[in-house]
Amino acid sequence: MTGLVKRLLIWRMGSIGDTVVALPVFHLLARQFADAERRVLTNFPVNGNAAPIQSVLENSGLVDGYFAYPMGTRSLARLMNLRREIADWRPDLVICLNEPRGRFAQWRDLWFLKLCGVRR
User: Fold this and answer.
1) Which of 22, 26, 32, 79 is the most buried (most CB within 10 A)?
2) What are 95's strand-pairing partners?
3) Where are the beta strands (DSSP E) in the chain?
């Protein structure tokens, strides 16, 4: 399956502490999908004191870019712009590294990814 993946979307919300804990997984994904372009769908902290995921992963070679997920937004326009960005990039596979969430949140996230064109 790894050879069929040209674009891997890694969904990881959180900031520096969450990212440090997830570093072994990012290393594993970089090895498993070495030929794939790897981008992270992540939130950019609204609190200026919280370090974003980029502060850990930048220049590491583990990922190639980021999509900014607007946490807590009620703006349909912002969500549709993000959907368009992801759909235009056309990821082959998404891997979710988020904490377990409620059933409604899981269904909402799944439908958002489906609207982005993600099939796996």
Assistant:
1) 26
2) 10
3) 7-11, 37-43, 65-69, 93-96
